[in-house]
Amino acid sequence: MPCYRCGIRQTDPERGASPWRRGVHREAQVLICPSCQREHDLELEHCGSCGSTRLICRLGEVECRACGWVRPARSGEPEAPLVTAGAPGLSEEVEAALSRVLGRRPGG
Predict the structure, then answer these.
(1) Is residue 12 a part of any domain in this protein?
(2) Three-class SS state of 10
(3) What pTM was computed for the model?
C-alpha cells in the first residue's frame, strides 16, 4: 500500500518498528511515509474522545489507538484516498518481486 499523500511504496521492513504511520482519511485506512509525516496538515480524522489521529479503520468501525475509543464507520462507500493503489509502476514492481521469489529471469 503506498503513502496516501505522495504515492511512494513501503519497502521491505528493516528490523525494529516501522517508521511508517497508519491513519484514517475519508473513512479509509491509509499509510503515511516518514517524509509526509513532517507535514502539519495530513487531513487525518481525529478521535472524538481524545483528539488523537492514531486511528485505525476495520470491520465497519474506527478505533483510536491512543485511548481505545470506538465508533461505527460512517455509512456509505469510503471516499477514494488522494493517491490510489494503482499508482504507476505497480505492475513492474509486482513482476520484479515475483521474479525474485520464484527465481525467474526478468521478462521471462
Answers:
(1) no
(2) coil
(3) 0.63
